[in-house]
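#structure-requests
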Amino acid sequence: MNDVNLENLFNPQSIAMIGASANPRKWGFIILLNILKGNFKGNVYPVNPHQKSILGYRCYASVSDIPAALDMAIITTPAKAVPALIDECGRKGIRFVVVISSDFSETGPEGARLEQEVIDCARRNGIRFAGPNSMGIFSARSGLHAQMPPVMPLIGGVSMFSQSGNLGFQMLGWGAEEGVGFSKFVSSGNEGDLSSVDYLRYFADDQDTRVILGYLEGVDDGAELIHTAKAISKHKPIIILKGGRTASGGRAAASHTGAMAGASKIWKAALRQAGMIEVSTSQGLLDCAKAFANYPLPQGNRVGIITRGGGWGVITVDGCEENRLVVPPLPQKVIHKLDKILPKYWSRGNPVDLVATIAKDPYIKCLEILAAWDGVDAILALGAKRGMDSYPYSEEVNKPKPLVDAITLATEMIQQYAQQPDPVLMHLGQLVKRYHKPIIAVSLASQLSHRSFLEAFQVVSYPTPERAVRVLSHMADYTRFLNSSSE
């Protein structure tokens, strides 16, 4: 689907770092350092007429002095120098540039005039560029970390374009904490040339990309975006966070990237029509990425719930109904199977309340009965893993020795339990594969624990039922879009 092949932008073999600096407080130093410590697989040529070497690499006075062909250049110089540097890149045969430099259309009419000059120079030289006002680019395949922040993403199947570099790189940082791996990322900046639509098309054709994320404030051609996204959404999920949804947010977007945000209601309708999944929070963007990248889609919107306590079940049912999910009643045949496992006073309904049963075996057996039931398309497993790995108690002195011994024993038992492979999570991951249904865990465990659940057991989990419900709702909506598109 791609009109322009961006392979040499994301996976270059050689880079000219124009504006490379020996000053650790300048972006020309920081970005060069990130490229080098990220184990970039190609060659890097710093360009600075006032330095002989930076970080042990020889410096060149100009791009034309570099004795090698170049796939890409990165520019970090002041904005006024950029047009002439684009011309120089053109004479060198460079076809892709990332313009980190800011002070363009995001600052007003004079900056917009200078940005247009950069665009004209690029077109005259056959150059395509990201930015200006970009925070950089990342690609796992080539080990390219040409970026401002010192983020080291996990490797995975998610790719993202973002009109906010700060927000986008935060997603990569959060992903590393929560187990969400990225293939590619680009901070698109002001989109003077390459746009979100160009990156969307590239990710659509990219075999390393399974899920596409995007942060948008505005686009010049909304119709083109919707037309492109509708075709791509039939094959890959596109998850979008839209900034500038309010009047004040729209004004902030204009001063941030020069983007015009557009009318919120029109955007929402258009995104839905194109099959894009719109989330309302930055955390929702990453939450959806984790589930869509690792779980099968539900075949419908019917949800089974298992819980260790009634209150969490009530909240989860409310969340499901508020998010277009159905919590169907249990049929008699399922109730009969559960009766053999649970105390006689259990509620006999969906949610399946384990009425504070502590043992793991009943949880596992009930979970399997729900997963096997053809009346649900997905399961929310509340309390699948307990979050406590120590036994908290007051540090007051003068406790009787039997009490101290009991606390010590309880702490040792909990720590021993925490170090063992968790049979509930292990079984949950197996059930997802066996029944091809998303089974989302909800656990009070730490954020790093949620990453370990994914890595060790291939289990997608969240710390609150509200987050799990919202993700499952988006998955069901996407299934509905796919079904309607195939009719």
